[in-house]
TrEMBL record, chains A, B:
Gene3D superfamilies: Winged helix-like DNA-binding domain superfamily/Winged helix DNA-binding domain
Ranges for domain HTH hxlR-type: 10-109
Keywords noted in UniProt: DNA-binding, Transcription, Transcription regulation
GO molecular function, one term: DNA binding
Species this protein is from: Promicromonospora citrea
UniProt KW Transcription keyword: yes
Protein name: HTH hxlR-type domain-containing protein
Pfam families, per the entry: HxlR
InterPro entries given in the database record: HTH_HxlR, Tscrpt_reg_MarR-type_CS, WH-like_DNA-bd_sf, WH_DNA-bd_sf
Length: 170, 170
DNA sequence: CAAGGTCACTACGAAGATCGTAGTGACTCG
DNA sequence: CGAGTCACTACGATCTTCGTAGTGACCTTG
């Protein structure tokens, strides 16, 4: 996490300083896809991060301005973690990493049709992801999930290249 | 780099296993943007990786099938590293990381008009990056660079604010 | 209102990764 | 040949991470 700051002026290097480790993007994924927002929820992820490392990562993400922490007003023990606007900017990165992984992992758990949907409507889907997460929702989980939105109102190129724009798009 | 074993079926996690460390994407960046292909060239990057770590990273990238190593036929000391097809698939990830970094680093070294150009023509630019790197070229360096291609044949939406491409800017 | 559970974290020792420098052997160039 | 260059290895000091076991603040339940 330490890694010389101000070392190079390369934007890739800058990005990797902020979230280029094994854990940070998994926290972002937990928020974006699964609507997780608390320490114990992150801790319970499949990848088994240890509490001290999670604590350090969250400190790093908060310090880099990607994540915001706030006490839960209803339960004084709880702390809630949300993406900041800067953190929401990681969604395109996350989507590309997910697409790469889904394409190259023979045992991927990602549904093929969802990957295809995102690939073919990337800008629109990134927009939906971002707006949904901004208001506290998630991609796969909850009433206001992007999955639910897509079921109700599919984006442009679903199935055939028929281009009939639905009423509220663009 | 080790991690792995049991793991999850999440494509993001799979991707991070392969290139989710501080150095791997920098090697990919050196190949894609700057046309670097040898050990010493990677070693000389601004970020000062140590030889033992670079060696381990290259082994990892080769092992993950992202990079291919081949002896230089003209110089028996030299070893050349190139992206495989799977490694070329990282270009969209790299582009998104670069865009994020350029957007959020106040001291970024990335030219603003290039970033705008890529943002506004992403699919087309990713295609040009990929084809150029596939045949051994790079984005910013060399006769066949993407910069040179764009100067000769700009992509679609090159009108409003972005102008005056710096022909040889690095 | 006390006992017990849950919450976000810390502590800590062992294990592993990284850093920086100093080689090493294979090869090329003059 | 001798000097220089190439891709690495070796190695010890210094992080970082892992895994488990707390800790104190705060609900919840009887």
């Amino acid at each position: 996490m330490k890694r010389a700051s101000g070392r190079s002026t390369c934007p890739v290097s800058f990005g990797l300083e902020a979230f280029g480790d094994r854990w940070s993007l998994l926290v972002v994924r937990d928020i974006v896809y699964f609507g997780k927002h608390t320490f114990n929820e992150f801790l319970a992820s499949d990848e088994a991060i240890s509490p001290s490392v999670l604590s350090a990562r969250l400190d790093g993400l908060v310090g880099a301005g990607l994540v915001r922490r706030s006490p839960d007003p209803a339960d004084g023990r709880r702390v809630r973690y949300d993406l900041t606007e800067r953190g929401l900017g990681l969604i395109p990165v996350l989507v590309e990493v997910a697409e790469w992984g889904a394409t190259h992992d023979p045992a991927t758990g990602a549904p093929a049709d969802w990957i295809a949907l995102v690939r073919e409507n990337k800008a629109e889907m990134v927009r939906r992801y971002t707006e949904t997460v901004r208001r506290g929702g998630a991609v796969f989980v909850g009433e206001d999930s992007v999955v639910a939105q897509v079921a109700a109102d599919p984006p442009g190129a679903l199935r055939a290249p028929a281009r009939a724009l639905p009423a509220g798009s663009a």
